[in-house]
Known about the structure:
Blueprint: H1 4-17, E1 21-34, E2 47-57, E3 62-75, E4 92-106, E5 118-132, E6 153-156, E7 159-174, E8 179-190, H2 198-201, E9 211-223
Antiparallel strand pairs: 1-2, 1-9, 2-3, 3-4, 4-5, 5-7, 6-7, 7-8, 8-9
Amino acid sequence: MRRVFPILLLVLFVEVSYAQRYEIGLFAGGNNVVGDIGNDYYVAPTSYTIGGLYKWNVNNRLAFRANIYYSIARGDVNKSNYSYNTSKVPSYSKGIGNGEVVLEWNFLPYDLRKSRAQTPYVYLGLGALIYQGKSGIGYSGDIATEPHAPQLILNIAGFESTLTIPFGVGYKYALNHSWVLAADLGFRYSYSDNLDNSAAMAVGNLNSNDWFTTLGLTLTYVFGRDPCACGQ
Length: 232
């Protein structure tokens, strides 16, 4: 047993060092808030999202990835499933900042030492959103006495923040040894019902929190050489 443990550690080290390359790049695409104001289609971008990402390819199946995005989110009250008095419940347009760390899993072996490497992938992680609240502060109405989905919201100086559970799918393709292009679809369950200002006005479904989705392309630059890939 004493001999087996060092062997397992060696195997793990070799597997990790085999594809220890890094990527840094940009994301550009669209977003949609799925809530009580605006359309409730999960894949129907209503505005734009831009941002950056950093990725550590642990091996040819596994990568850790950090995303930082900025979005302008919009919701048209006339496209809502609920019939609102538009003089009291307006459409909205607000900035949303998004940060998250996810674990990315490749369906196919993905070796960046080889040009034209490609694979579909899935990811799951933990993140947070910061966004403009209605009039900047808290909620109106006596929400505490009404049925409501659990929320984790912090209000600071006109902004609200909340935790998210991000997950998604995508497909990436290595254009060459240095550049990777990917299509990425991300879903984020938030612990807030106020991404669309509905909780602040006590309208819509108080038992359902909002979702935030993104759809777009990433372009990343590959750097860092494999310890065992000299001359490749």
